[in-house]
Automatic annotation (TrEMBL):
Belongs to the carbon-nitrogen hydrolase superfamily. NIT1/NIT2 family. GO terms for molecular function: hydrolase activity. InterPro entries: C-N_Hydrolase, C-N_Hydrolase_sf. Pfam families: CN_hydrolase. Keywords: Hydrolase. It comes from Streptomyces thinghirensis. This is Carbon-nitrogen family hydrolase. It comes from the Bacteria.
Length: 292
């Protein structure tokens, strides 16, 4: 049976790319590992390592900060995860893809230093963001704990993203955020809604001022807020979710009643979805979900 996952959402301001952001980040993670020794997975906000100052051109910073995932930055991050024996999600970074385009990408490093996942933001916040869009949903397994899915900021506004992650067996969705605007209020509602309608844990970590408004949150599969922060300049939102709880809710229903992954009666014909020129096939609806 899976065991609970000690989680740390690091609500903090972005590091400026022009500075020694990698050295500062390594010091930051080492300090957090000392002060929060029980945490097994640290997650940072969107573009934490690629910040820009108010007088800098974001586009220029993006181009300067972009690297291949196996470049010097990736080598350092992998070594840091291995050194500390932690699961590390360093926020998203600017990735230079093989096609020459720049993506907003969240890499994940295992305690042995392997990069076990990388997720490219599918929904850049147009027209304000100019990174190329990703084209696939990404999950990874935290051995002994459960399955984790990735989304980046604006992705959470599109129900198709969290639904597909849940369908792929995700127990916890990490949503890495950099929201400095007033709609963080709506994002907190969306986090709870995504948790409820998909029966997954949601962990949304936002940047601290001035890069974001904070208000990071962990929500359980029935929509209850387990942990949350205000707008502190740096705080680690800690929680120890039992990811097997997501599977129990899917099996027994929200509040022991509502089973959103079992809505179709036997023999139900596929439901056409004109918006997508596709369909919901009842035979596939639950097929990706692991059993308890």
């Amino acid at each position: 049976m899976p065991t609970p996952l000690p989680l740390g959402l690091v609500q903090t301001a972005a590091l400026h790319h022009a500075d020694d952001s990698l050295g500062l980040f390594a010091d930051q993670v080492r300090r957090l590992a000392r002060t929060h020794p029980a945490v097994r997975l640290f997650a940072f906000p969107e573009l934490h390592l690629c910040g820009h100052r108010p007088d800098e051109d974001p586009e220029r910073v993006m181009r300067a900060a972009a690297q291949e995932l196996d470049g010097p930055r990736g080598t350092m991050l992998a070594g840091l995860a291995r050194e500390l024996g932690l699961w590390l999600v360093p926020g998203s970074v600017y990735e230079r893809g093989d096609d020459g385009r720049v993506y907003n990408t969240a890499p994940v490093y295992a305690p042995d230093g392997r990069r076990v996942a990388e997720y490219r933001k599918i929904f850049p916040w147009h027209p304000y963001e100019t990174t190329a869009a990703g084209d696939r949903f990404v999950v990874f397994d935290v051995e002994g704990h459960g399955r984790v899915g990735l989304s980046i900021c604006y992705d959470a506004w599109f129900p198709e993203v969290t639904r597909h992650l849940a369908w792929q067996g995700t127990d916890l969705v990490l949503n890495l955020v950099r929201t400095p605007t007033v709609d963080r209020t709506q994002e907190l509602v969306i986090a709870r809604a995504n948790a409820i309608v998909n029966q997954v844990f949601m962990a949304s970590v936002n940047a601290a001022p001035p890069d974001g408004t904070g208000r990071s949150v962990v929500v359980d599969p029935e929509g209850r807020t387990r942990a949350e922060s205000g707008s502190e300049p740096e705080i680690v939102v800690t929680d120890v979710p039992d990811l097997a709880g997501a599977r129990r809710v899917r099996e027994h229903g929200t509040a022991g009643l509502t089973r959103v992954w079992d809505p179709f009666e036997h023999g139900r014909q596929p439901l056409e979805l004109p918006l997508y020129e596709g369909r919901i096939d009842p035979a596939r609806w639950r097929s990706g979900l692991p059993r308890r």
